[in-house]
Design a protein that fits this description.
Number of strands: 0
Number of helices: 2
Largest sheet: none
Order of helices and strands: HH
Structural class: mainly alpha
Radius of gyration: 18 Å
Helix content: over 70%
Length: 51
């Protein structure tokens, strides 16, 4: 999967490294801003069952 992504990125190696880092940061930002808060709201991960 990563090799296919690497082949799809345009440019020389140094540009591919920068593009891959930008994509990684974008994915992590989307996870922290949208996906993780949604998961916490829709699950009981924070609720504790010890009484």
């Amino acid at each position: 999967m990563y090799a296919a992504l690497w082949r799809k990125l345009p440019g020389p190696t140094w540009l591919k490294i920068i593009e891959a880092l930008v994509l990684f940061v974008a994915v992590v930002a989307i996870l922290f801003m949208f996906v993780f808060p949604w998961v916490v709201e829709n699950t009981n991960l924070i609720d504790n069952t010890v009484g």
